[in-house]
Each structure stands twice: as C-alpha cells, then as structure tokens.
Design a protein that fits this description.
Structural class: alpha+beta
Strand content: 15-25%
CATH superfamily: 7,8-Dihydro-6-hydroxymethylpterin-pyrophosphokinase HPPK
Mean pLDDT: 93
Radius of gyration: 15 Å
Largest sheet: 6 strands, antiparallel
CATH architecture: 2-Layer Sandwich
Number of domains: 1
Order of helices and strands: EHEEEHEEEHHE
C-alpha cells in the first residue's frame, strides 16, 4: 500500500454510459463523486464506439475524473459500485453488455494491486483510447504505476482502433 492509511491519494476514475440519457448519467455520477470526495476535476467528454461489447451496442459517453482522498482503495471500489447501482447499472454477468453507468478506478496513487476484486492500475487502461484521451486532458505527463511511458506517449503509440471523438455539449 502506498503511504499511510491517512495519506491523501490522487485517484482517477474512468466513467462511461451507453444506456439512457448518457449525459445526465455522467453528470449524476460526477455529482456523487464530488459529494463523496469534496470536489473533482473532469476531462472533456468523448463519444466512443463500443469496445468488446455485443454487436449493435450503443456508443458510449466517456470521461475521466480526478479526486483526492484518504479513503482506502477497497472503500473507493465499494463506493463506485454503489453509485453504479444507484444510477441503474444491472450486472448480468455478460462482459461488455450495455450499461447506464460504469465507473472504473484507473489509478489510486502509486498503488499496484492485484486481487480478485480490484487490480490497480486498471489492467487495460493503457490500451484504451477512450481512457487515455481523457487522461491526457487531466495530465498528459501522467505515468501510470508500473509503466514507464506517460499517457500522452501511450496514446500516440496506440494502433488505430474504435472511434473516440470529443463530445460537444
């Protein structure tokens, strides 16, 4: 674990929604996170072609959010799951199924963790444009724990993939 239990940690989440009023869902998720952590920083919103989802799945709205907290990572995960449920997420066991709200912990300080419930940093964040592009909005020089390249370099080195476009409000 990085630092003492009361040490403030920089936590970054990836948010996504592809069911219902996607924008309203992400706004609500941000409200819940801001209330829980006393504020947040939000990236640009992006509209993203679904990745690893069943055929015909709707496009996502994605963003990244940064907070600071002393809450332990397992409690942060539990909070994320409560927010997802509150916003209508139903876990049906089908990987990639459409969802009203998806909140992933991209990183928790310098923590590197691999448990059945939580892997930090997120094991696929460095391979996904819909995570790296909004991460660059927050901090293009950020290096994820366990990696040597910053997120801007990771993004530049990604092969062409699913469409990720800025979403205008």
């Amino acid at each position: 674990m990085s630092g003492s239990p009361t040490e403030t940690q920089r936590v970054i989440f990836s948010l996504g929604s592809n069911v219902g009023d996607r924008l309203a869902v992400l706004e609500s998720a941000c409200d819940y996170l801001a209330d829980a952590f006393g504020g947040l920083r939000l990236s640009q919103l992006y509209e993203t072609e679904p990745v690893g989802c069943p055929a015909g799945s709707p496009y996502y709205l994605n963003a990244c959010v940064e907070v600071n907290t002393t809450m332990p990572p397992q409690e942060v995960l539990a909070l994320c799951m409560r927010i997802e449920k509150e916003l209508g997420r139903e876990r049906n066991g089908v990987y990639g199924s459409p969802r009203t709200c998806d909140i992933d912990i991209v990183m928790y300080g310098e923590e590197q963790l691999n448990t059945p419930a939580l892997t930090l940093p997120h094991p696929r964040a460095h391979t996904r444009e819909f995570v790296l592009r909004p991460l660059c909005d927050l901090d293009a020089q950020l290096t994820l724990p366990g990696h040597t390249e910053n997120v801007s370099t990771m993004l530049a080195n990604l092969p062409d993939g699913p469409s990720v476009k800025a979403f205008d409000l």
